[in-house]
Structure formats: C-alpha cells, structure tokens
Amino acid sequence: MEIKNNSPVILIPIDDLTCGIVVSEICEIFSFAPQNILDSSNSIQAVKENYSQGIIQYQDKMLTLLDLKEVFHTRELART
Questions:
Q1: 24, 27, 35, 53: which is deepest, by most CB within 10 A?
Q2: Domain definitions of the chain by residue range
C-alpha cells in the first residue's frame, strides 16, 4: 500500500507510546459498552486467540475486537 500525506491513520496509545496504523480506509466509527463484548473462545477465528479481546455484534455483523496492546507487544514489533 502506498502511504500518502492524506492516508488515514488509527492512533493507539500503548503504555507510554502512541502507535499508528495506516489503513486503506475508515468506513465507520462507533462506540459500544464493554459488557456487550462476547467471549470468542468457541468461535472460529482468523486471528490468533491471544490477539482477540472477544467479539461484538454490530448491526448485522459479528466483529472481532483486536487486542492491539498484545499485537504491538509481540516479539517482532517490540521496541529495542
């Protein structure tokens, strides 16, 4: 993906660092209550289980919530 000056970025505060993820597009932003997060341990997932915080129903879709703190703390991405 080519990164341009106007490429959308999602900023994530993790510990004492703010990380950015460049995405192709941001379709929608929504809020949800933490009590609406469902356990994903019994569902089929494309994401490694330790990267998932659970699933949430949004409109007619089931969305997997990524644990971005865990993703950024993986060995490949860890700060030196």
A1: 53
A2: 9-72
> Could you report the per-residue pLDDT of 10-43, keeping only the tens digit for each?
998 888 888 888 999 888 888 889 898 888 766 5
The pTM for the full model equals 0.62
Supply the DSSP string of the chain, one letter for each residue.
----TT--EEEEEETTEEEEEE-S---------GGGPBP-TTS--SS-GGGEEEEEEETTEEEEEE-HHHHHTSTTT---
Distance (Å) of CA 26 to CA 55, 61, 77: 19, 17, 23
Nearest to 3 by CA among 18, 26, 23, 20: 23
